[in-house]
Amino acid sequence: MGGWRLRESFRTASGTVRWDRFGEAGGEPVVLLHGTPFSSYVWHEIAPALAAGGREVFVWDMAGYGGSEMYAGQDVSLRAQGEVFARLLAHWGLDRPSVVAHDFGGCVALRAHLLHEARYRRLALVDPVALRPWGSPFFRLVGENSHVFERLPGALHRALVREYVGTASHRGLRPDQLDALVAPWADEEGQAAFYRQIAQADQRYTDEIQGLYPSLRLPVTVCWGTEDTWIPYAKGEELASLIPGARLRPIRDAGHLVPLDAPAALLGEVLGFLGEA
Q1: Contact 84, 9 (CB under 8 A)
Q2: CA 87 to chain CA centroid, nearest Å
Q3: Rounded to two decimals, what is the model's pTM?
Q4: Annotated domain spans of the chain
Q5: What's the rounded Cα separation, in Å, for the pair 51 and 159?
Q6: What is the CA radius of gyration of the chain?
Q7: What is the pLDDT of residues 44-59, one digit of tens each?
Q8: CATH code, residues 8-134+202-275
Q9: Alpha-carbon distances, residue 246 vs 116, 125, 136, 217, 249 (angstroms)
Q10: Which residue range or ranges hold the AB hydrolase-1 domain (predicted)?
Q11: What does the alpha-carbon distance between residue 9 and residue 54 come to, in Å, rounded to a whole number?
């Protein structure tokens, strides 16, 4: 993934996950969560910028993603990722960090908080997977036939992943960005892992917590790309209406991959949110 490498590791029941930190040790803690089929690379511009303000910023690759371990039979479900995240927070010794979570990472953060007693100071949700129904026709097709897609010739698989990932951006990804996002899925191990995570993407893991959103008692902001074709902007309006005190912040001219489509605009929203009294 270009020059993006996570230096630390943590062993979990779902395999070893890679993580790293930026900024001042002991500074205000902020944790960034990525979505699928991405990695912590989506934060490669935002993490250092957040850390420059005297914060200690943590990033990690979910189990089975990015630089983290991938293996046959691995549990990479949203249920497992929520448990891993709660354990990772304990490993870091963080109590009440601010959390910024994109896509599947939004569900992971919500599950860790609502089901596993992870405590946050603030929660920023960026185009999260949080409300039924979710999953595009393509996503469901792959999930129902993952055993077939796993056997695609490597070149065809890589072309499919590049095309799929590219549709998450409204502005269009630079070649180096697209290469970095596709690289973890490009070899034989990554190909199997790519279809594994789609096969395990079960809506029941958001259904289990959707009814609990009105019980959230912490500052929440919802940022959403106005041109998101993966999860429409209307879902952001619906989600913000379910969470007491939540505000919806539109990110103009951005698709689903807001951290890469509009990093400056998203950073501005996050900084403003973190700085609120």
Answers
A1: no
A2: 17
A3: 0.97
A4: 8-134+202-275
A5: 35
A6: 17
A7: 999 999 999 899 999 9
A8: 3.40.50.1820
A9: 22, 10, 26, 10, 10
A10: 29-263
A11: 24
